[in-house]
Amino acid sequence: MRSAKRRSGTQDERVYAHIFDAILEQRLAPATKLSEEALGAIFGVSRTVIRRALSRLGHEGVVLLRPNRGAVVASPTADEARQIFHARRMIERAITELACERASAAQIAELRQCVAEEHACFARGDRGTGIRLSGEFHLKLAEVAGNVPLIGFLRSLISQSSLIIALYEKRNQAHCSDEEHLRLIDALEARDVDTAVGLMMRHMDSVDDKLDFEEGAPSDDLQAVFSHLLPSARKA
Amino acid sequence: MRSAKRRSGTQDERVYAHIFDAILEQRLAPATKLSEEALGAIFGVSRTVIRRALSRLGHEGVVLLRPNRGAVVASPTADEARQIFHARRMIERAITELACERASAAQIAELRQCVAEEHACFARGDRGTGIRLSGEFHLKLAEVAGNVPLIGFLRSLISQSSLIIALYEKRNQAHCSDEEHLRLIDALEARDVDTAVGLMMRHMDSVDDKLDFEEGAPSDDLQAVFSHLLPSARKA
DNA sequence: GGGGCTCACATTGTACACAGACGATGCGAG
DNA sequence: CTCGCATCGTCTGTGTACAATGTGAGCCCC
């Protein structure tokens, strides 16, 4: 009824993915209010669809659903942030171990490709997309590990990590230095589990070190954040 | 308007908890179809509420949502089961470490109380409730650990574990022997991290050992192959 | 002049009605 | 007798209307 339904996913998926990406790319700041009606108007769908997307994001922890008071982008406290990073450390370790055992040549090539794109984004100053790709590298590593529950957990943790970085980042320094990603891939290729896990742990440390648990400055202009998709449905 | 069940949580929570518990107590067998209308009639709520509960259960992995074809209780394959148990092992390890550091005397008493109830249930033959309480022990341990994301992950994994046990259990043997739980608490009280983690890993082993994933041999006896999903909607 | 209360508005929560899809059953052809 | 096809029925997907709740502004009282 609305414009052509993409077979690659229902409108549910489309709405969810757009909001999810917006948070990952830090175009949606923590504490931004997510009005159902406003989002429905932006995406051209009814509140029913929006509500499902928000519900899912709520379960993943990136959106806070306050009963009768609407949804906002989550803004983790310093303590919650520590919990999230600790959990992520545990998951990443498990994933690195598994990925080291199972990585195929094709998958390693794919990972390298991913890091290359990430590097390119940061190089040309596209910070938002770079952050998202950095997260996707970790997610791709999880897929190599092949453990479905762990993939889901990591997905949730990565998106929350993005929020934390948005809130507590010290300066505009590089995030996941691609260098660390590359060395991790090398260890994977060599099937050196100990080195790989060690690198991943150091990688987590370096992310930690770039954070400073102070306050951030949120900005909430829903219209501007999604302005890029108003004319067309999607952009590469 | 409806019954006065307000303060103990919205009806959403009530419906979700009932279905969740039914799965944990194995009163709902894997592959059981969950009709929205039927559930709505049972709980006296509209399909909207049922749908939310099913959606949440779907995200947690205990219910399979098939587009346009309704929801069924998930029935993990042997491979999925292995992934779930591996993931659970990783999470339980992390939780045990944390709990060992943080457990207070009051919390340890609470854990002992939980094990006592569990033991009582198995003793009087209330297998379903016993299984649920066994899961709640692990969940309570996670709360002691105090890491919110990990609690959520474990919740999902425990409920799926219950399904796996229902599907692949070798015999009617005891599940989480309370003995193992008790010894774990002792190690916690002594703040002996290494012993506690070791006990938890052995505990996971013993659960594994009670399962039999080998039955995928091609059999011409259709009746036997699918016997576990035939008339067993409820059986207590 | 400040604090508390009340009323009105806006936004979310719930239910229902319509539309579409999938599965089942019955008929007909080979 | 079996297989394929068409039609029917049931269930899910979606949108919309209504109800309830939280919020904020304005007013009254202190």
TrEMBL record, chains A, B:
GO molecular function terms listed in the Swiss-Prot or TrEMBL record: DNA binding; DNA-binding transcription factor activity
Residue intervals of the HTH gntR-type domain: 9-76
Keyword Repeat among record annotations: no
UniProt xrefs under Gene3D superfamilies: GntR ligand-binding domain-like, Winged helix-like DNA-binding domain superfamily/Winged helix DNA-binding domain
A Pfam family reported for this protein in Swiss-Prot or TrEMBL: FCD
UniProt entry keywords in alphabetical sequence: DNA-binding, Transcription, Transcription regulation
Domain of life: Bacteria
Protein name: Transcriptional regulator, GntR family
